[in-house]
Design brief:
The chain has 200 residues and is an all-alpha fold. 93% of the residues lie in helices and 0% in strands. The chain is built from two helices and no strands. Helix 1 packs antiparallel against helix 2. The longest helix is centred in the middle third of the chain and has 151 residues.
């Protein structure tokens, strides 16, 4: 192999080597461009995914906030309703207590009224009996007085010695009856006064 051939071969190899280096640079540049493009696409896709995730999270947050707001409103309504129910329970309890007291008072008044009416009826019946006895005694006393006077004057043989004693007994009984009538009349006045106070 001559020097010129060797040099020619060497130049050819060197040229080929330089060409390979150029191709390698070109290939590396293309690869770098493709990698850059891939990086840009990945970054863009990643940004889109992150943005979509943000939007999804924001929607979830807003939904939760709305639910919380509705629950808070519902809770306020329930608290207000509960407060109203408690007030109604207290008011109803007070009304029941008032009605119970009123019923007790009415029952007591009814019992008292019944006692008053029974007492009034009894006193009136007793007073009526006393008045009848008085009405019977008065003509009898007059008759006994005549008999007693006749006995004392000796103007009648039919008059007996006990005529004056029976007259005294009748007068004494009439006095007792009059006193008892007055007592019963006073009882009736008290009963009427008590009935007026109770609104009967």
């Amino acid at each position: 192999m001559t020097s010129s051939k060797w040099e020619s071969g060497y130049q050819a190899l060197e040229k080929k080597y330089i060409g390979l280096l150029e191709d390698k640079k070109t290939l590396v540049h293309k690869v770098e461009e493709r990698v850059a493009k891939v990086d840009d696409q990945v970054e863009k896709q990643l940004k889109q995914a992150i943005e979509q995730q943000k939007q999804t999270h924001q929607i979830e947050i807003e939904t939760l906030q709305q639910q919380i707001s509705e629950l808070e409103k519902l809770n306020l309504n329930l608290e207000s309703e509960l407060s109203e129910q408690k007030a109604l329970v207290v008011e109803t309890s007070e009304k029941n207590e008032s009605l119970n007291r009123q019923a007790d008072m009415q029952a007591s008044m009814f019992e008292r009224s019944r006692e008053i009416f029974q007492r009034e009826l009894k006193v009136k019946q007793q007073l009526e009996a006393l008045q009848k006895e008085k009405d019977d005694l008065q003509p009898r006393i007059e008759e006994l007085k005549k008999t007693c006077d006749a006995y004392l004057d000796g103007t009648s043989w039919e008059a007996t010695s006990d005529s004056c004693d029976r007259q005294d007994e009748a007068n004494s009984r009439l006095s007792q009856v009059n006193q008892m009538i007055r007592v019963h009349q006073m009882d009736l006045e008290q009963i009427q006064s008590l009935a007026d106070q109770l609104g009967l």
